[in-house]
Amino acid sequence: MLVELSEELKAAVARQVGECKKELIERFGDFKEVPEQFKALWTSTAHFTALHSIQHQIVKAVPLVVLSSSLDVDGIVMEKQGKTTGYFYDTTEGGNGAAEAMFSNSFDEEGRKSEDISVAYPTRETAVIVYTIIGLADDSVGGIRNRIELKRNQNKWEIVWVGEQYKCQLGRGHQDWSDRLCS
């Protein structure tokens, strides 16, 4: 499964990561010797660091989304030709479909018009991830939006709320996002 960051998100993330690095330098001084396991993250672009962090959050959320363990999925972030991309994959021998199940739903792929993943930071201590699919090949549901709210607790992100909303096809119910099912 492939995940990419939009230009708007890259800009927002660059600001956030810059602030985090600045705060670390103020708190601990200029790092002369960054531990080996963190060097790549410290010197990489902000959107690489952000996507790497999001990867960890998504992997930890696996049991909330599919019947699987967070140990069944992992990911890797790569930068190539100015593009930062995250790939998620199953870690079990032969795969068990957990990575695909995290980003899919029970509807057919055919007819999908758009997908969007956004990450917002309302405060320094909170984050909101919204995954939206619009244009489903379904006679009643036109779109699905999933929202995950996170809160920082002792420098770790914890999921505090997960929800799903629907937008109905014309003539099949409400046209705004709602947790009510379509008819």
Describe this structure in words.
By secondary structure, this protein is of the alpha+beta class. The chain has helices at residues 7-28, 39-43, 46-65, 98-102; strands spanning 2-4, 73-80, 83-90, 114-123, 126-134, 141-153, 156-168. The protein has a four-stranded antiparallel sheet, covered by helices on one side. A three-stranded antiparallel sheet has the order 1-3-2. A hairpin with a 2-residue loop joins strand 6 and strand 7 (156-168). Helix 1 crosses helix 3. The radius of gyration is 18 Å and the shape is globular. The mean pLDDT is 78.
Helix content: 25-40%
> What portion of residues belong to β-strands?
25-35%
Principal-axes shape call: globular
Low-confidence stretches: none
Order the strands across the largest sheet as they lie in space: 4-5-6-7
Structural class call reads alpha+beta
Number of helices: 4
Write down the secondary-structure element order: EHHHEEHEEEE
- Mean pLDDT level: 78
What is the first-to-last residue Cα distance?
Answer: 31 Å
Number-wise, the strands total 7
Q: Major β-sheet, in short?
A: 4 strands, antiparallel
> What would you report as the Rg, rounded to the nearest angstrom?
18 Å
Tag the structure with descriptive keywords.
183 residues; alpha+beta; four-stranded antiparallel sheet; 7 strands; 28% helix
What is the structure about, briefly put?
Helices cover 28% and strands 35% of the residues. It is of the alpha+beta class and 183 residues long. A 4-stranded antiparallel β-sheet has the order 4-5-6-7, covered by helices on one side. A 3-stranded antiparallel β-sheet has the order 1-3-2.
